Amino acid sequence: MPIITVNNRQVHIQELNKGAEQTVVLIHGMFSNLSIYYFNIAPVLAKHFHVVMYDLKSHGMSERFLDGYDLDNMSSDLIGLIDHLQLENVHLVGYSFGGLIALKTALEYPDRVNQLVVTEAPDPQDEKARNIIDEYSKEFLEHYVANFTDTTKVQMGKRQMEKNHRMYEFLFNQTTIKADMIKEKYFLGETDFSKLTASTLLLYGADSNCRPTGEWLQSQISQSELELIPGDHNIPIQEPQLIAETIAQFLSKILTQNHG
Fold first, then answer.
1. With 80 as the cut, is the pLDDT of residue 38 above it?
2. 162-178: b or e for each residue (b if 16 or more CB lie within 10 Å)?
3. 20 to 30 A from 229, CA-CA: which of 3, 125, 202, 237?
4. What is the DSSP string of 106-134?
């Protein structure tokens, strides 16, 4: 699998439809990896766009690091990746904590981000919302084993689960990830969203504990629309086809409005 060097760090990426004119970068959440998009969501988007997926540091097949999990560092990592791929500007799609990374990047680098899709981004100030991320990781593992293995399902499933559990243990016990996430406690409340220039789609589960955050973001971001998807915080797993189609329609609509 492709491993590239970005800012002296090893990053695992996957790309689909490299020849497309517009690029969408997909950002997964904490304690996950790019496969949340790879099997169902990315192929739908790749019918229209160049799709870039990458594993966050210490996730999936990317290099492990002890620190740098705050939004400034994660956003800088993302821009470094975009620079490495020689992309002038991109659309960003972020899920869970990845949605916060996408928001931060769009605010800090407005000339590099065309449109923005924020899926189930939690309010870091809400301790219950932070706990959802850990609950999600368990469902992600079960979903991976149930759906994304071949005839050697049991053996592959066990290896994958053990690998992911080792990653979780490393992140929780040896890195600054929990402290860095707590450091971002007031990120949403202290952000001036009037500076956000990208048209924004907010995707939230109709039954998600994070839904109030999506509704609040809609009230703060002038160029935003909120779409409620059947399900809870795990909507990329529960409704991947609907998620993909909704994102594709949003980006295509905005592009038509901007160039039509």
1. yes
2. eebeebbeebeeebbbe
3. 125
4. HHH-GGGEEEEEEES---TT-HHHHHHHH
Residues 6+ apart with CB under 8 A from 162: none
CB neighbour list of residue 115: distance below 8 Å, 6 or more residues apart: 91, 92, 198, 199, 200, 201, 250, 251, 254, 255
Enter the tokens of residue 59: 């996730």
Dist. CA 17–CA 68, nearest whole Å: 31
User: What is the per-residue pLDDT across 122-161, written as a single tens digit (0 to 9) for each?
Assistant: 998 877 655 655 554 555 555 545 544 443 334 445 676 6
At which residue do the structure tokens 């189930």 appear?
120
pTM for the structure as a whole = 0.88
131 vs 109, higher pLDDT: 109
How many whole angstroms separate alpha carbon 167 and alpha carbon 73?
20
Q: What is the CA radius of gyration of the chain?
A: 17
- In the chain the beta strands, taken as DSSP E runs, fall at 3-6, 9-16, 23-27, 50-54, 90-95, 113-119, 199-205, 224-229
Give the 3-state secondary structure of residue 87. Answer: coil
Scanning the structure block, which residue is given the tokens 């504990």? Answer: 209
With tokens 């053990």, the residue in question is: 162
Residue 222 is encoded by which pair of tokens?
């002038």
CA–CA dist 60, 146 (Å, integer): 18
Kindly tell me the sign of the dihedral angle through the C-alpha atoms of 239, 139, 146, 34.
positive
Residue 56 burial class via C-beta count within 10 angstroms: exposed 0-12, middle 13-18, buried 19 and up: buried
